[in-house]
C-alpha cells in the first residue's frame, strides 16, 4: 500500500471508549473540537426529576469508567460514505461494555474490530466485545464484524524480575475464542486498507536499541 492509496476524508470522529482518564479530567489541545462527556449525557438523557422548578438529569453516576488501556471508536466519512472501526478494546470487557452503553454507542455500526497489537491492555476484552458487536449486528440484519489481527500472537507476555520470578500479564485471547464469539478473523502483517476509507500501517520496525 502506497501513501497515495489512503483516502482523503471529509470528517474523522474519534470516540474514546477506554482510556486512562475520563474526559472530565483530560486536557484538549487548542483547535480540537470536543463534545464533553457531560454535555453529551445532558443532550440524550431524559430528566429524571424536577428540583426547585428545574428539570434534573443525573449525569455524574453515568460518566465513563477510566482504566488502564485503550479503545477508540473511529468513524470516517467521505462524501455520503461513512465507515466505522473499533480500534482496540481495552483490558476489561465489562469496562468497555459499560462505557459503550454510557456513551450511547450503536454497536451494530461497527464493521471491523482492529487490534493494534497483542498486549492485554489493548486486547484482553476481545471475545466479549466481539460477541456484543456481533449480536448487535445480527439483530440489525448485518454481517458479522471482521476482526483484524496481527498473525504473530504471543503465547504469554510477562516481566522477568531480577529474582527470576516471571510477573505474568493476562493471557491473550485465542483466535478460536474470537471466532466462537462471532468475529470473522483476518490476519495481516503488512500495510493494508481497512473498510475502504482507513489504512493500517503494518508492523513499524524497531529502529532503536
* Total tally of structural domains: 1
Q: Let me know the CATH homologous superfamily.
A: Ribonuclease Z/Hydroxyacylglutathione hydrolase-like
Identify the strand order in the major beta sheet: 1-4-5-6-7-10
Query: What structural category do the secondary elements indicate?
Result: alpha/beta
Query: How many angstroms separate the termini?
Result: 28 Å
Indicate the radius of gyration in whole angstroms: 19 Å
Describe the protein in words.
This protein has 209 residues and is of the alpha/beta class. The chain has a single domain, classed as 4-Layer Sandwich (Metallo-beta-lactamase, Chain A). The protein has helices at residues 37-44, 93-102, 120-123, 126-139, 175-180, and strands spanning 11-18, 49-51, 54-56, 71-78, 81-87, 112-114, 146-149, 158-160, 166-168, 184-187, 192-194, 198-200. The strands form 4 sheets. It has a 6-stranded mixed sheet. A two-stranded antiparallel ribbon has the order 2-3. A hairpin with a 5-residue loop joins β8 (158-160) and β9. The longest helix is centred in the middle third of the chain and has 14 residues, at 126-139. It is globular and about 65 Å long. The model has no long low-confidence stretch (mean pLDDT 90).
